[in-house]
């Protein structure tokens, strides 16, 4: 106090040495901001993204246990030869069965995905198409709930074609690469049976079919064995291959001999697509 009640204010002044304080540069500030805003995408991140994309959101999910990792470029269609969708799902989840597929479609059109599309399922077994001798490594397997002795219901076929359209678009699968199990394993397998509507699928862009209005006789030098091989069939067991071919394209006659009509069909397919 001075002179009575007049207050006196005392200020403590601290001198700051600005040379001792380092301010970040503009480039350092930008680098720090980018480091926060842009996370580093590791291999694990990329695989996780692919894994999520490989699961169809429109299908139920019941995971199978037998698989390896691979990239799909074919679709192989099967019939289950069992009695129900539930039985097939159970089969693909048993340790001792050593078999699986990516999708199972019920008679009512219910689609159940059992493996991620990017995984290698165990559905084709010993198989060959063209130069590919391990179809499991390059294909997606689709099982249709059917005992092999009955027509495929409309709801099931419609669900299959919706799924095929999704897979074809997502993985850019060529239309010629939609096959049946019997195509890639003639003599060993006969699915998806003579009841399967291959012509209808081909009209939607899934597989090939012949032009019924233009079945001209093949020339005298037409080699039907080479034609079957060029299409993709394994001709090491020629009789079995002819049966598989006729089961798919002739249907009403599945004998081991090619008739004149059968040769016309084969020649038409050969000229049309291959």
Automatic annotation (TrEMBL):
Gene3D superfamilies in UniProt: Peptidoglycan recognition protein-like
Q: Report the residue ranges that make up the N-acetylmuramoyl-L-alanine amidase domain in this protein.
A: 60-193
| Keywords, sorted A to Z | Cell wall biogenesis/degradation, Hydrolase
**Could you say which residues form the signal peptide?**
none
Tell me which InterPro entries the record gives: Amidase/PGRP_sf, Amidase_domain, NAMLAA_amidase_2
| Reaction catalysed by this enzyme | Hydrolyzes the link between N-acetylmuramoyl residues and L-amino acid residues in certain cell-wall glycopeptides
Protein origin, superkingdom: Bacteria
- A single Pfam family it belongs to is Amidase_2
Q: What is its EC number?
A: 3.5.1.28
The name of this protein is N-acetylmuramoyl-L-alanine amidase
């Amino acid at each position: 106090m001075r002179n009575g009640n007049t207050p006196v204010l005392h200020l403590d002044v601290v001198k700051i040495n600005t040379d001792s304080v380092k301010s970040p540069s503009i480039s350092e500030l930008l680098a720090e901001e980018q480091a926060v805003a842009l996370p580093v995408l590791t291999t694990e991140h990329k695989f996780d993204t692919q894994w999520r994309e490989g699961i169809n959101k429109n299908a139920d999910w019941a995971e199978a246990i037998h698989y390896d990792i691979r990239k799909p470029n074919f679709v192989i269609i099967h019939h289950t030869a069992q009695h129900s969708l539930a039985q097939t799902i159970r089969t693909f989840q048993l340790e001792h069965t050593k078999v699986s597929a990516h999708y199972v479609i019920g008679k009512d059109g219910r689609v159940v995905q059992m493996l991620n599309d990017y995984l290698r399922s165990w559905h084709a077994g010993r198989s060959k198409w063209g130069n590919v001798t391990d179809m499991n490594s390059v294909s997606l397997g689709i099982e249709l709930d059917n005992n092999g002795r009955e027509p495929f219901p409309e709801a099931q076929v419609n669900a299959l074609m919706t799924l095929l359209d999704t897979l074809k678009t997502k993985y850019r699968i060529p239309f010629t690469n939609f096959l049946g199990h019997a195509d890639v394993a003639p003599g060993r397998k006969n699915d998806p049976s003579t009841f399967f509507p291959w012509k209808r699928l081909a009209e939607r862009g899934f597989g090939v079919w012949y032009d019924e209005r233009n079945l001209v006789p093949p020339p005298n030098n037409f080699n039907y064995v080479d034609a079957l091989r060029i299409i993709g069939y394994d001709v090491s067991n020629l009789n079995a291959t002819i049966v598989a071919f006729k089961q798919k394209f002739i249907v009403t006659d599945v004998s081991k001999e090619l008739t004149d009509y059968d040769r016309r069909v084969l020649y038409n397919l050969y000229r049309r697509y291959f």
